[in-house]
Automatic annotation (TrEMBL):
<dbReference type="InterPro" id="IPR008972">
    <property type="entry name" value="Cupredoxin"/>
</dbReference>
<dbReference type="InterPro" id="IPR052953">
    <property type="entry name" value="Ser-rich/MCO-related"/>
</dbReference>
<keyword id="KW-0732">Signal</keyword>
<protein>
    <recommendedName>
        <fullName>Cupredoxin</fullName>
    </recommendedName>
</protein>
<feature type="signal peptide">
    <location>
        <begin position="1"/>
        <end position="20"/>
    </location>
</feature>
Length: 187
């Protein structure tokens, strides 16, 4: 009886430690850089690259270029709308940037699974999402839920902000842009 009690107590302790472990996977050391407001495509209403394949533990860092862009997680079925119930990530409108520069800060998320992550820019001045400023991480290339279809479905939608506080960010972290220390012009 003592042995069974000890095994139960040890199992409970292990289960307790497992549930207290951090939710994020250890980082792989790989960073995928995505540039919001690329001037090379769609009049600057573009993420570059707009389709990224990332592994669990990889980091995705959004660099913000000219204007005031955001990045908001959405679902394929509801383009230009944040995930329901406050889930997902939102950079906030924290990155106003002068032309031909990058912002002093970036927004980073960590990949925690291989499910597709759909995202868009929630800037309503100029209808960025409806004009194609969206992207995907880990698109299923064997299915019919493609980035082209997401963009097509977004054309007649209305952009929804994830928060009444447009500077409130969630689901990632804002930090200094490492490119600024490497000679990139930042503002």
């Amino acid at each position: 009886m003592i042995a069974i009690t000890s095994i139960i107590a040890a199992s409970a302790a292990i289960i307790g430690l497992t549930s207290a472990a951090p939710a994020n996977a250890p980082t792989t050391g790989v960073v995928h850089n995505i540039f919001a407001g690329s001037t090379t495509a769609n009049g600057g209403l573009h993420f570059e690259p707009e389709n990224v394949v990332a592994e669990v533990g990889d980091l995705v860092t959004f660099h913000f270029q000219a204007k005031n862009h955001t990045v908001v997680q959405s679902s394929f079925d509801k383009p230009c709308e944040p995930l329901a119930g406050g889930a997902g990530f939102f950079s906030g409108f924290n990155f106003p940037t002068q032309p031909n520069t990058e912002n002093l800060n970036v927004f980073t998320i960590q990949i925690t699974n291989k499910d597709p992550i759909w995202y868009y820019c929630s800037q309503t001045v100029g209808d960025h999402c409806q004009k194609g400023m969206s992207g995907v991480i880990n698109q299923n290339f064997d299915g019919d839920k493609t980035l082209a279809k997401y963009k097509e479905n977004s054309v007649n939608t209305k952009t929804v902000q994830p928060s009444a506080d447009i500077k409130a960010s969630q689901g990632g972290w804002i930090h200094a842009n490492p490119s600024c220390a490497q000679g990139i012009q930042c503002s």
